[in-house]
Structure formats: structure tokens, C-alpha cells
Design a protein that fits this description.
The chain is an alpha+beta fold. The protein is 24% helix and 37% strand.
């Protein structure tokens, strides 16, 4: 029984390590910013007060969905999306390798003017 438990634990550890190393695919409408999370649904994004959408998804650097109370504070360098009403819908707290990908648009105007390669997950300026 101990061998089975040890094997399962080792497999779980390997799976978590592999998951943390995979490249995340961000949607084309994801913008980059600095996020400070307060008492949900309140937050500060790029110095402006914002609200998290009902059912907002926050993914930590290991790509695990977390509740806002787990990441209160910051600032976190994030990629994020907003819904049609302007509420923050999806948040990805960036790992150092993801944060190093430059350039990444910080505004909708930049995203509209730049080109996005969804396979390479890179933006290029015209």
C-alpha cells in the first residue's frame, strides 16, 4: 500500500511541475497591467479603481484558479480581460518568463493597432 501511495504522490508532483512549465495561451483581447486586489470585488488596475466581474477567474503563476482572498495585495503583473460592461473578467498572474514577453499591449488602442501571433503568443508593433 505504501508503494502505491508513494507512486501516486510522485506522479502528482511531476504533473504539477509539468503544468507549471507549460506555456499558457492568452487570448488576443488580453491586456497587460499591474493589479492590486482588495476586498473582492474591489481592485486597482494600473492605478484605477476597478471591480471584478461576478465569477471572475484569477489564475496564479502555476495556472491554478484561486479566489481573490488568496491573492489580496500586490501589485501583480498580470494579463487580463474585461467583459462588455468593463468589469475585470479573467486574470493571469504572470511568471517571470511570461512577463519577459515584450511588447504586450496595455490598452485597447494598442491592441487594435498591433499584430498578434496566437501560436507564438507574441505581439508586434506596425
Amino acid at each position: 500500500m505504501n508503494r502505491i501511495a508513494t507512486a501516486l504522490l510522485a506522479t502528482a508532483c511531476i504533473a504539477v511541475a509539468a503544468q507549471a512549465q507549460t506555456q499558457r495561451a492568452f487570448p488576443q483581447n488580453a491586456l497587460r497591467g499591474s493589479l492590486v486586489i482588495g476586498i473582492a470585488p474591489d481592485a486597482v488596475l494600473n492605478g484605477d479603481r476597478v471591480r471584478l466581474a461576478p465569477g471572475a477567474r484569477i489564475r496564479n503563476a502555476a495556472n491554478l484558479v484561486v479566489v481573490p482572498s488568496e491573492v489580496i495585495g500586490g501589485p501583480y503583473l498580470v494579463n487580463y480581460t474585461v467583459d462588455t460592461t468593463g468589469l475585470v473578467k479573467d486574470v493571469w498572474i504572470l511568471r517571470p518568463d511570461e512577463a519577459a514577453v515584450q511588447p504586450w499591449p496595455r490598452t485597447r488602442d494598442e491592441a487594435a493597432a498591433w499584430r498578434f501571433d496566437p501560436v507564438g503568443q507574441v505581439w508586434s508593433k506596425p
